[in-house]
Amino acid sequence: MTAEQSLPAAPLTPSEESRWVVLAHIGGLLSFIGPLIVWLIYRDRSDAVERESKEALNAQITYAAAALALYVVGGLLAIVLVGFVFIIAATLVQLAGLILAIVAAVRSNTSGTFRYPLTFRFLK
Predict the structure, then answer these.
(1) Burial class (CB within 10 angstroms; exposed 0-12, middle 13-18, buried 19+) of 110
(2) pTM here?
């Protein structure tokens, strides 16, 4: 067998699937890198892992973009002493992303799925 002809990866067992779903959400504590890694590696081996890692990835990208935008606006407006409100808002968005990643990990482990609120669906 040549390098181009590799065998398809075996499907995940239910316990492995549950583990990677939780890790996809907990990976959100590292911003979008954790869910991205899980999605890239396991998307072909489990529908549940693909769905949940995409959900976590979409949420973390949304929260990172919102926080970055708020930091930029806050930095620009800080010149006129109003920007601190945006910097506080950006910090709260990042904190919400961390808290929601933990909630998603717990809920997806018990019920199997979690939808993040206020999230753009970049990956469908």
Answers:
(1) exposed
(2) 0.71
pLDDT digits (tens, 9 = 90+) for 58-93: 999 999 999 899 888 877 777 776 667 777 888 898
Amino acid, single-letter form, for residue 61: I
Tokens encoding 110: 């018990």
Enter the tokens of residue 14.
Answer: 């239910």
DSSP H helices in 8-83: 14-26, 33-42, 47-77
Task: Indicate the burial class of 120 (C-beta count within 10 angstroms; 0-12, 13-18, 19 or more).
Answer: exposed
Are 36 and 28 within 8 A, CB to CB?
no
Tokens of 12: 């995940």
List all residues 6 or more positions away from 75 whose beta carbon is below 8 Å from its beta carbon.
83, 87
> What are the backbone angles phi and psi of residue 33, rounded to the nearest 5°?
-65, -45
Q: Where are the domains of the chain?
A: 14-111
